[in-house]
Amino acid sequence: MSAAAPGQRAPRLDPDDSIARHMTRVGRFRTIDPTKPGDLPHASRVIGVVAWAALLTESLRRARRARPR
Predict the structure, then answer these.
(1) Distance in angstroms (rounded) separating the CA atoms of residues 56 and 61
(2) 3-30: burial string, b at 16+ Cβ within 10 Å, e else
(3) Predicted structure pTM score
(4) Residue range 12-40: mean pLDDT, rounded
(5) HSE toward the beta carbon, residue 30, CA cutoff 13 A
(6) Can you tell me the distance from the alpha carbon of 17 to that of 36, in angstroms, rounded to the nearest whole number?
């Protein structure tokens, strides 16, 4: 376990530390390696997020412009 100076923050587990010996990796998380970084999202997902952000921005801009003062 990594040590922290007293009074600064709670101690954190290192990536190779385990919480307990008896914990097993079962279910949908058994194939996930916590030491390996995750995969990058597909281009279609990135394009979808950018399109959603553009639609939201434009909607808010038009709503603000249409609001009477």
Answers:
(1) 9
(2) eeeeeeeeeeeeeeeeeeeeeeeeeeee
(3) 0.49
(4) 74
(5) 5
(6) 14
Structure tokens at 54: 């553009």
More confident residue, 23 or 17: 17
Coil, strand or helix at 62: helix
Tokens of residue 14, six digits: 């290192």
Q: Give the model's pLDDT for residue 42.
A: 96
Angle at CA of residue 27, ends 22 and 31, nearest 5°: 90
Helix, strand, coil tally for the chain in percent (to 5): 40, 0, 60
Evaluate the CA torsion angle 25, 31, 35, 39 in order and state its sign. negative
